[in-house]
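We modelled the chain as a single entity of 147 amino acids. Its sequence is:
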Amino acid sequence: MYEYLKVNLQEKLAGFRDFAHYNEEKEDRLPLKALFLSGVDALSKDALYYLEKIMRFGSKNGVLSFVNLESEKNNQSAEDLKKHAEFFRDRISFERFKYLNVEVINDQGIKSQHMKDFADKIKAYYKQKKEVKRELKALQSLKCLCR
């Protein structure tokens, strides 16, 4: 995942605000990826370093990180990750998607159906939000025409 981000940042996303801006301008769209982790305290120091980078820069570059910190025995790992995490504030860039395809690529320890259900809920949320915005725009256009 780190290599994916590194390549995208260096080769594809140069000159763009974020990956959503890239997807609006280019034909070869980049997919939104999600990384779900638990048991982070078992990671090596190097792996934690890369995870911190993914969490810090991933959201603007098409990689969302979901880390279950409640399971951590070593509170220092959890605190370090919180310190380096970029919290999910920028929902706008994800709401601009024309489509959202979800696929579970690597599933170890978590049942695929649970992940698929979670991903389907995310997809449904954004689909519903886009529908509401479309209806509001239609009503506003109708209101402008009536004046």
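As a brief sanity check on the tokenised model: The longest strand covers residues 33-38. The chain has a mean pLDDT of 71.
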